[in-house]
Design a protein that fits this description.
Layout (H helix, E strand, L loop, with lengths): L8 H11 L2 H12 L5 H9 L7 E2 L6 E2 H13 L4
Antiparallel strand pairs: 1-2
Helix pairs in contact: 2-4
Amino acid sequence: MSQSVDHDQARAVAFVRAHGTASERSRLRILLEGTRPTAEEEAAILAGQRADGGWASEDGPAADAHATLEALRAFLLCGDR
């Protein structure tokens, strides 16, 4: 039996702000405001790219598609292609 889930964007944003890393909070700001990351934020995101081209989630050593898509989304939203 499935449970009903209340999709509340404000709670999701508050969760990332409270529990996210600096890189995750930067990506949240990019998503919400469409602003470019600072040079330091961009460097931190780029530093997370692995030799295979992917990014790992903040809590794992291996690159994964979800984390890579999120990094790409951040760059695409701020105009880097």
